[in-house]
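Hi there, hope your week has been kind to you so far. Thanks so much in advance, here it is.
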Amino acid sequence: MRMTLLALMLLALTTAPAFAAPAKTKPPASAAPTSDKALVDKAATYLQGLKSAQASFSQTDPHGAVTSGTFSLQRPGKARFAYDPPTGLTVVADGVDVDVYDAKLKTFNQYPLKQTPLALLLASDVHFDKTAVAASVSRERGGFSITLRDAAKKTQGQLTLKFMETPFALAGWTVVDPQGGKTVVTLSNLKSGVALAADLFELRDPHPRAFKP
């Protein structure tokens, strides 16, 4: 089965809010502890100021399959994952929807952006104390990671953002779906403040089906 980062997350979360704590944990009522608050604030401020960016990405799906490609971001609302051949997959968030086109299978699917984890990175206002709350902070060599939970506590699964300290930047993320499957994305050569063409965030079904009443 060809499970990609967004396909996996979208299939798991299209009927519920985007972020949640693991099913068997009881996250604290408040946000991250005071000792970690500076890191949480630093991450939120960074994402808030990240208006445009482009990077290479490597993705490992729950089955161990590795794919790669180019990630482009234009906040608020827009992102593009262009997978390298032979994957044949393109994923675009246009500010309203997330479109997923599989050139090999010739399938085109569309999901509301607000119902996907991409909504966090692409929101006009990034706060880790409202819809998505920082449930824990983990210090790691060369950086740290923040695990998020759904403030409404209505979904299962887990999203963790990873940041590197020098230079400070988003380094990737890990998504654990409700069944425990883990998808890991690592970013490299991230460049911020880049000029990106508007049509980069437009994706239409190249094989539209004729309407039959």
Q: What stands out?
A: Helices lie at 5-13, 34-49, 118-122. The longest helix spans residues 34-49. The chain has a mean pLDDT of 80. The longest strand covers residues 182-192.
